[in-house]
Amino acid sequence: MKSILRGRYLITMNENDEIIENGALVIDDDRIIEINTFQEILKKYKTASIPIYGHSDAAIMPGFINTHTHAAMVLLRGIADDLPLYQWLREHIWPLEGKFLSKEFVYDGTCLACLEMLKNGITTFNDMYFFTDSIANAAKDLKIKAVIGQGILDFETPSGRGPDDYLTKALEFINKYKNDEFIFPSVAPHSIYTCSKDTLLKSKEIALKFGVPIHIHLSETFNEVEDSIKKYGMRPVKYLKEIGFFEGTVLAAHSVWVDEEEIEIMSNFGVGVSHCIESNLKLSSGIAPIARMVKKGVKVGLGTDGAASNNNLDLLEEISIAAKVQKGITGDPTVVDVKTCMKMLTIWAAKALGLENYIGSLEVGKKADVVTMNLRKPHLQPIYDIYSTIIYSAKSSDIEDVFVNGKPVIINGRHQFIDEDELINKSIWWAEKIKADNKNLILKIFLFLYLIFIV
Ligand SMILES: [Zn+2]
Prior knowledge:
TIM Barrel; 42% helix; 17 strands; binds zinc ion; alpha/beta; globular; Urease, subunit C, domain 1
């Protein structure tokens, strides 16, 4: 089954950063089989039976890659804002997760997140959460690619009894999905403050044995660095290097508090970074020095983090903020330029996840994960530099069509395979359930105080 995608600009993100004006590509099944000018493609493939997507005012580009998220947390979007990370986690998120986390919660939440991401031009996301089968089922039902890692911790949660149980689950998940067309398993030890050295090294061994990436939170807050110095006598990145954790593909989310020596280590060991600027700003965690990382050759991608700390899954919004914040903190407007930004959204993110042979650019032989954007909008005209238009002027609502593995998943902004209203109604149902439970809790506390002090 073939299809043709055409546009005013075909942005390849290949090694030469080639942009083909009035370009087109041909998809056969799940792969790109030809890229050329629309005229040439028409000459070669002109048959009435091949559907043509896109138009003369469209930009065609690789699907965006969200390198760090906890997708199901969309169901907790906006439940507790304006708090520091540890208070937010301990007083709100962890108690709620303790109560509501289940297969159904994760499936319904991830479905909603997948729909939001697809509509925002995201064709792959890197998730760390619990009930990984539910995440995988949601991603497959919504037809989006997902790198999925069982969250590994040293303590019990509703999804596991402790590190050995999580590690067993991680192994089972890898075996089940190692050859899937939409799912790429990973191993996801949560962080150095929730995993012992033993847990971290066991996670690494599994990742190396099966050739899958490791996904970890690293140096997200200054607290984490202080604790690491107290406990291990060194900063987090150095600690992981010393224990021999950096082997294979490692994706470090956040990496806000890293010094020059640590950036050097990350560069030398090929550690990828997921830059989550909105989550870091909102929780006042700090600002990752990505301009310096990029200069040192660290593979930097963008991540939204969970929607409870963002509060959306919108990489175009994220990249615009990321670029401007780096210019602001460095006093240098030339850092993180528009081309660098496009790479962070696509090919560098693929490299950070070890998936650059499949996704991240539009090239013959690669999987057809392609996004079209309608440029015929007042806020997108005129166009002098298409990268600039996409990074600084475009919004995710300008995305029109989204193809994943060659399938037309979103056409004219609508999902082609699922009932969008049903998903939204499900999330409203969850919010009502969570709100009712919160009210009950307040009532119980009130009754308890009444019984103690009045009766
Ligand atoms: Zn996170």
